[in-house]
Design goal:
151 residues, Aminopeptidase, 6-stranded mixed sheet, alpha+beta, globular, 6 strands, single chain
Length: 151
């Protein structure tokens, strides 16, 4: 049987371009999930919470500090993109933050990330920028953009 971390890792490995070095290792994921403030959401190909025996099409990894929740990672398998799964997953993330009594949610991304459209459509607004924060495999640097929205 495939466990939830196996499912998350399979989606991450298929979804993140190694050039940008955004994917986490299994150890990083496992260690983050040992903290009670960190949690994951897994969705199936319909963008709904996973049922027994289903295969993950997307995931969110998030952590909470006081009344703020940070979206650490979000991904949808390439073959399931364009089906509004990312939109549903982001809505579930925001609802999970609300259920945890969060007042705000945050995320950070590289400046050339095509997911920016999704975040802005979900009500996120840019609140900051870190120049040359990310480094690609070739050594090029990319700015980090920070976004937030009220819950």
């Amino acid at each position: 049987m495939i466990d939830d971390i196996d499912q998350l890792m399979a989606v991450m490995e298929a979804s993140f371009d190694p050039h940008y070095r955004e994917a986490w290792t299994r150890r990083q994921v496992e260690e983050s999930l040992t903290l009670p403030s960190t949690y994951m959401l897994l969705v199936n190909a319909a963008g709904e919470p996973m049922g027994d025996g289903e295969i993950a099409a997307g995931f969110v990894l998030a952590r909470q500090a006081a009344d703020e929740v940070e979206l650490l990672l979000i991904a949808v398998l390439p073959q399931h993109r364009g089906k509004r799964i990312g939109r549903r997953l982001l809505a579930q993330f925001i609802e999970s933050a609300r259920a945890r009594s969060a007042a705000k949610v945050f995320l950070e991304m590289r400046s050339n990330n095509p997911a920016e459209r999704l975040y802005r459509a979900a009500g996120f607004e840019q609140i900051g920028q870190r120049k040359d924060y990310y480094r690609t495999l070739t050594g090029a640097t990319i700015d980090a953009l920070t976004f937030a929205r009220e819950v």
